[in-house]
Design brief:
Blueprint (H helix, E strand, L loop, with lengths): L3 E5 L10 E2 L15 E7 L6 E2 L8 E2 L2 E8 L1
Antiparallel strand pairs: 1-2, 1-3, 3-6, 4-5
Length: 71
Amino acid sequence: ANVEVTLLDASGNPYGVPISTDANGNYLFKSLPAGKYSVKMTLPEGYKVSVKDKDINDTLPTGDLGIWTEL
């Protein structure tokens, strides 16, 4: 919850305004034009990114996770 998520365009530039995750960690960017996007997560102090169904110690780096999607 309350993780800042920034949408990045295909060039890696911020697109629009960053949003925060909800209480369940979900986020949604609405009404995006067709294109290639990635997200950058800014975690609160002391938080780590983890993969669902993995051990709590199997963490990923913070920041741009290199996850791209094309609309």
